[in-house]
Each structure stands twice: as structure tokens, then as C-alpha cells.
TrEMBL record:
Residues that bind ATP: 243
Single GO biological process annotation from the record: glutamyl-tRNA aminoacylation
E.C. number(s) listed in UniProt: 6.1.1.17
Source organism: Psychromarinibacter sediminicola
GO CC terms in record: cytosol
Catalyzed reactions: tRNA(Glu) + L-glutamate + ATP = L-glutamyl-tRNA(Glu) + AMP + diphosphate
Motif segment ('KMSKS' region): 240-244
Aminoacyl-tRNA synthetase class I anticodon-binding domain location: 330-463
Alphabetical list of CDD domains matching this protein: GluRS_core (cd00808)
Protein name: Glutamate--tRNA ligase
Pfam families recorded: Anticodon_2, tRNA-synt_1c
This protein's UniProt keywords: Aminoacyl-tRNA synthetase, ATP-binding, Cytoplasm, Ligase, Nucleotide-binding, Protein biosynthesis
Family (UniProt): Belongs to the class-I aminoacyl-tRNA synthetase family. Glutamate--tRNA ligase type 1 subfamily.
Motif ('HIGH' region): 12-22
């Protein structure tokens, strides 16, 4: 097993959006496989036909694609493999590793109630386990695995350590229902084996399933994969992450304007660590990620930390890549697309927009000065900054700018001289100048804005507020 190429998988149920916890599970599997030249596979566990929808499947595809978690080959539909699952159940039956159980639901319920009344374990022990096939009735039956009655099953888990389960605690679980449909516990094992999965990295809510699933592996003589059951994600209050803590779906984080790289970085740090490293690239994450770095304790989701990492990723991102992500963000959040002129303006202004922006929404807010068209409509605060005195100072400034060399040093000199001539500070001139150029009181530096929009547009905007 240790020498085999690494194959991991992500196996979500398509019953809704891609949950942020599921996204982290997918990320861990992706990082582990990609860092070792292995394969990362995707399986859609759609056997619950009543709850599974094509729309949810597409939402999973979109979420993984936005996150940049590419999978190898086509996604596998578990439902389409039910014939293979049934085949394995019948093979186990033929090998004597499973048996037909004809007990009805009423009989099972009655047996459990009697056991409870007598103070015994309510785990159902089928009377058909050792029955002579000659005594089998012509009636519906399920196929149950023949679990060992003595000894211990040990789940050797790379995160949780060795977890021992007494075999007398394991029931003869159903493999094939009376209607011929396979159970989840059988389907998962057959699919993982057939797909060549070497490492099963999943939430620790599946830890109890591992011991039961090992019964199928061992009964079939198949290699048991490496288990790694990772702790769940909790909210800041230490309780299981839920809607009351905020956004749960990956799509919501895209619509909130977070870069995919920042979400990958943050999710990687939820429950896994590499020394004190907080900010890192995909290449570093692939090189560093290992199961030994995953903690046993539940991770706590912290929106402030995500925002901080997001700002770091925006600051170092390539401008063209940022603009492409901003366009995707606008589409995901239902906002109008940018025109070619606006994209051109963003490209020219990006150098002064990235600093201290934590989301794409904040970048666009700072970019208002280059995205909006004249005449700008100042917001309430900007309108207050453009009082009669301030307009008078801007009127003095305008002719000084008409023939000035259009570089930052000269522009700073001109504005400073006008401030001194009016016996005031540079900031007292900069604030109404900002209001005139951006229509906002929060924006990039006034000198950066003047350089981005150019002389003619600067003078035109000053003319709009001083006329």
C-alpha cells in the first residue's frame, strides 16, 4: 500500500450547496494527492434519489471549480454503479461472508423491545445468521454481512490514532436491501476499492463507519485504505458550524468577494498547520501538507482571519488575474458586468486599489473614481466637504494644474502651495479635492487618482464642482 501511487477522493452527496466544511475536506484530499503526484477523484454519492438533484451536483462542480480544486477524470455517479454494488453483495453471499435475512421490520422491532425490557443490548442478532438454506422461505430478504462475534477491530487512523472497536459491538449490517438496492456502507467500500483509493480523508463523523466498512474490505480480501478522519469545523462559539454563524456555502464566499486563493489558504489552516506559517501559496501548501499536521481538536472558523488573509492575497495578486476574478465575483453576486472602458480604468488604477482592500467589493468601492462617469454624484459626506470655502480653494487650484507637469512630485507641490497660500494644511485641501475627484471621502490618494484619470478628466471634475 505504501508504495502505491496516492489516490484520494472527495465524495459529497448532492443534496444542496457545497458546504464550507466539505470544501475543506476536498482541499485536504486535493493537497495530499497533488503534493505527491497522485490522483484526486470526485464521486457524487447520489444514491438517495429523493434528495439528490442535478442542480446540487452542478453547485458542487461550480464550487470546486471556483476554488481551483481540479479533479482527475470524470466525476463518478454512485447511483449508476448499483449493479456492481449488488454484485459484490452476492459474491459475499456465495463466499459465506454474508447471509440472507428474512426477518421483517416488525420482528426486528419486537426483538429490540424485548432486549431492552430484559436489560440486554438492543443490537439485532438475526435468527437467520446460521439457518440452514433448506429452511429459507420463499419471501423477501436482505443480505447481511457476517460480522465477527469475538475479538477487536482496530482502525489505524493517521489523525485520531488507533481506534479499537469490540467486534461484539458490530452488527451484521445490511449490504443489500430487499428491493435489491445497495446500502451506503456497501457502496462506499466498493466504489473506493474500484476507484483505487489509497487514502480516505474525511470528517471524523465517519470514524464509526470505518470499523464497519473494514468488515467488507476484509471479507472481500481487499486492501484497507489509509484512514484519516479530520475534526469538524466549529463556529467561534465552539459549536458545530451552522447558519447562525454566517455563510455556509462556498458560493457565498465567492459572492462576498473573497479571492479563491485566500479561501484555499484559510481552509488549509483550519485544522492543519505547518509551524507558524499563516500566509502561503498553493505550491507551498502542496509541498508542506501532510496528515501528521492535522490536529485532533475541532477547528474554529474566524471570519477576521479569513479577511486578513484575503487582504494579503489581494495585495500580491497579479493585476490581470485580479480583474478576471472581479468579473467572476460580479457575476456570482448578481451585479452588472464591467464595460471595456471600466476594465481599462481598473487596470490603470489597480496599483492604488489593492492596498488594504480585503475583498473585491472594497476594491470596487475604492475604484469608484475611475468606474463612474461625469458628472459624479457626491455622496452625503463628500457633499459636506464641498462647502463654499472649499470650492473657492479648488477654483484657485484649477488654473495652477492646467500647465503643471503631470507627475506626482509636481502635483504635490502645486496642491501644497495652494494650501499655504490659503493658510491651511494640505489635508484641508485634499479632502474637498478627493470629494471632487471621487464623489467619496474614502478613496486612494488624491495624487494617485489624478495620475490615473489624467489632466483633462481632473480639470473637468474640478470644473463640475466649481462652476
Amino acid at each position: 500500500m505504501t508504495d502505491a501511487p496516492v489516490v484520494t477522493r472527495f465524495a459529497p452527496s448532492p443534496t444542496g450547496y457545497l458546504h464550507i466544511g466539505g470544501a475543506r475536506t476536498a482541499l485536504f484530499n486535493w493537497l495530499y494527492a497533488r503534493g505527491r503526484g497522485g490522483k484526486f477523484l470526485l464521486r457524487i454519492e447520489d444514491t438517495d434519489r429523493a434528495r439528490s438533484t442535478p442542480e446540487a451536483t452542478q453547485a458542487i462542480f461550480r464550487g470546486l471549480t471556483w476554488l481551483g480544486l481540479d479533479w482527475d477524470g470524470d466525476a463518478v455517479s454512485q447511483a449508476e454503479r448499483h449493479g456492481r454494488h449488488a454484485e459484490v453483495a452476492r459474491e459475499l453471499l456465495a463466499r459465506g461472508q454474508a447471509y440472507k435475512c428474512f426477518s421483517t421490520q416488525d420482528e426486528i422491532t419486537a426483538a429490540r423491545e424485548q432486549a431492552k425490557a430484559e436489560g440486554r443490548s438492543t443490537q439485532f442478532r438475526s435468527p437467520w445468521r446460521d439457518a440452514d438454506p433448506a429452511d429459507h422461505p420463499d419471501a423477501p430478504y436482505v443480505i447481511r454481512i457476517r460480522a465477527p462475534l469475538e475479538g477487536t477491530t482496530v482502525v489505524a487512523d493517521r489523525v485520531q490514532g488507533d481506534v479499537s472497536v469490540r467486534n461484539d459491538q458490530l452488527d451484521d449490517m445490511i449490504l443489500l436491501r430487499s428491493d435489491g438496492t445497495p446500502t451506503y456502507m456497501l457502496a462506499v467500500v466498493v466504489d473506493d476499492h474500484d476507484m483505487g483509493v489509497t487514502h480516505v480523508i474525511r470528517g471524523d463523523d465517519h470514524l464509526n463507519n470505518a470499523a464497519r466498512q473494514m468488515l467488507v474490505y476484509e471479507a472481500m480480501g481487499w486492501d484497507v485504505p489509509v484512514w484519516a478522519h479530520i475534526p469538524l469545523i466549529h463556529g467561534p462559539d465552539g459549536k458545530k458550524l451552522s447558519k447562525r454563524h454566517g455563510a455556509l456555502g462556498v458560493d457565498e464566499y465567492q459572492a462576498m468577494g473573497f479571492p479563491a486563493a485566500a479561501v484555499r489558504n484559510y481552509l488549509a489552516r483550519l485544522g492543519w498547520s505547518h509551524g507558524d506559517d499563516e500566509f502561503f501559496t498553493d505550491a507551498q501548501a502542496k509541498a508542506w501538507f501532510d496528515l501528521d499536521g492535522i490536529g485532533k481538536a475541532a477547528a474554529r472558523f474566524d471570519m477576521k482571519k479569513l479577511e486578513h488573509l484575503s487582504g494579503q492575497h489581494i495585495a500580491v495578486a497579479d493585476d490581470a488575474a485580479l480583474i478576471a476574478e472581479i468579473e467572476s465575483y460580479l457575476a456570482a453576486s448578481g451585479q452588472p458586468a464591467l464595460s471595456e472602458d471600466q476594465i481599462d480604468g481598473l487596470q490603470r488604477a489597480m496599483f492604488c486599489l489593492k492596498d488594504r482592500a480585503k475583498t473585491f467589493g472594497q476594491i470596487l468601492e475604492k475604484a469608484h473614481f475611475v468606474l463612474a462617469e461625469r458628472p459624479l454624484r457626491p455622496d452625503e459626506k463628500a457633499a459636506k466637504a464641498l462647502d463654499d470655502v472649499s470650492r473657492g480653494i479648488l477654483a484657485e487650484l484649477t488654473p495652477q494644474l492646467q500647465n503643471a507637469s503631470w507627475n506626482r512630485h509636481t502635483l504635490e507641490e502645486v496642491v501644497t502651495q495652494v494650501a499655504e497660500a490659503n493658510d491651511t494644511k494640505l489635508g484641508k485641501v485634499a479632502q474637498p479635492l478627493r470629494a471632487a475627484l471621487a464623489g467619496r471621502t474614502v478613496s486612494p490618494s488624491v495624487f494617485d487618482m489624478m495620475l490615473v484619470i489624467g489632466r483633462d478628466e481632473t480639470l473637468a471634475r474640478l470644473g463640475d464642482v466649481t462652476a
